[in-house]
Amino acid sequence: MHVFHLNHSDIVGGAARAAYRIHCALRTADVDSRLMTDVAISGDWTVQAPNSKITKAWVVLRPHLGSLATRLLRTDNPVLHSPSIFPSGRLRRLNTCEADLVHLHWVQNEMLSVADIGRLQKPLVWTLHDMWAFCGAEHYAEDRRWQEGYRANNRPAYERGVDLNRWTWERKRKHWKHPIQIVTPSQWLAACVRQSALMHDWPVTVIPNPIDTEAWQPLNRELARKLLNLPLEVPLVLFGAVGGTRDPRKGFDLLQAALQSLQVNVSGLELLVFGERQPQQPPDLGFPTHYAGHLYDDVSLRILYSAADVMVVPSRQDNLPNTAIESIACGTPVVAFAVGGLPDIVTHQQTGYLATPFDAADLAHGIQWVIEDSYRHAQLCANARAFAVREFAYPVVAKQYLAVYEEVLARHRTQPRPA
């Protein structure tokens, strides 16, 4: 089977890492999988990026034109927008390529225009990594327009100017006449698809993002801490960069409140932060804090997860965060709110702790519950690793994708997609 994947990048960003891992999982299952990107930095020969000067220039220019259009037509909506206006120049190649099937991923950063997607003629599968496909131009939405339809009378009061989201949604409705097989990594995102005004009757299947559990394995905790020059005996709580304060979805304010609560009940605990170097004026988080900086390779990240006693993911809204999957693959339990796709990763009090959504006190209780009993902690670590192998290993996920591919190809043979 020949499959062509499309994603903006190969390994830059969460969606890219997920798409690349799906591509790699399929190759281990003897699928002739290729990944087409605008930005390729992995050095993998199976990843294709623009090579002509003209194409490279257009790839660089196109997202800037999209951003300019977004600013000119700006609303006061603070979330990321992608109107996907400009044609990619890829349609002819994609429609005539040797692939049996084209698999879309995160293509909305002007990699494909809305019209381009509607003109693809190959059998299609589309793995969603956020809500953009069934929203307007926004990647995540807190209002209900994606469920109700984008009308003039249900626009949020805080938005101004041209209704960019409604205009983009109407273009999707115009150009996407033929349902595409949707795959979502989480049950939550699948439920959103089924509730959406645009895609409620499209086929949707839940397949988790994979991880190479042969490469992502637990490392001896003492050795990991020695390699990172971390204290050997204290409980270490790991979480992502405090730079996440710029995105309220990441819930850093809730983590801060939980840490304040922990100061009353827990002593000797220390924090481990990754994704950011120590700032000039570090925030007072209530506990000694170690900054691991940006870690770009899987080996360093594996050491980091293995050094921690618990990983905290305090997101208000998330699909299926790679960090949580990586953590449990390394045998480190995860504490998170029971929102989005996190219940697909964390089984409450089995592989970690699911706190009542947005209850900082319960989040703090979950952290304490995981680390306070050494026997319980060891069992959680073993459970987390076993769950990762059972649910997210490459062979497990590749098998599920192959089943979806066969269904799509069979459907395409009996009901060919019109030009």
Automatic annotation (TrEMBL):
GO molecular function annotations of the record: glycosyltransferase activity
One Pfam assignment: Glyco_trans_1_4
Keywords on record: Transferase
Gene3D superfamilies: Glycogen Phosphorylase B
Annotated Glycosyltransferase subfamily 4-like N-terminal domain residues: 12-214
Protein name per UniProt: Glycosyl transferase
InterPro entries attached to this UniProt entry: Glyco_trans_4-like_N
Taxonomic path: Bacteria, Bacillati, Cyanobacteriota, Cyanophyceae, Acaryochloridales
